[in-house]
Amino acid sequence: MASAAVSREVVSALVEEIGAGVDAAVECWMAQIERALGDPHLTTLGRLNAVNEILANYKGITGKVLLGCRRAS
After folding, report:
1. pLDDT band at 73 (very low <50, low <70, confident <90, very high)
2. What is the DSSP letter of 36?
3. Full-model pTM
4. Which of 21, 34, 46, 69 could form a disulfide linkage to 42, CB 3.0–4.6 angstroms apart?
């Protein structure tokens, strides 16, 4: 019983850490996009290119070519 409780605590701690890491990564990308879209020194096309660069960087880091979105059922 004690090992099951410890295991649950370890899993819970891991879930919290992974969740915090994902949240930090998403917030970082959103901040990059926000800065690109709000940059007054860029034209509309420049802003679009900046966002495309952020997306290309993400794909390069993750090795993904296509991105998908799971739809809620």
Report:
1. low
2. H
3. 0.75
4. 46
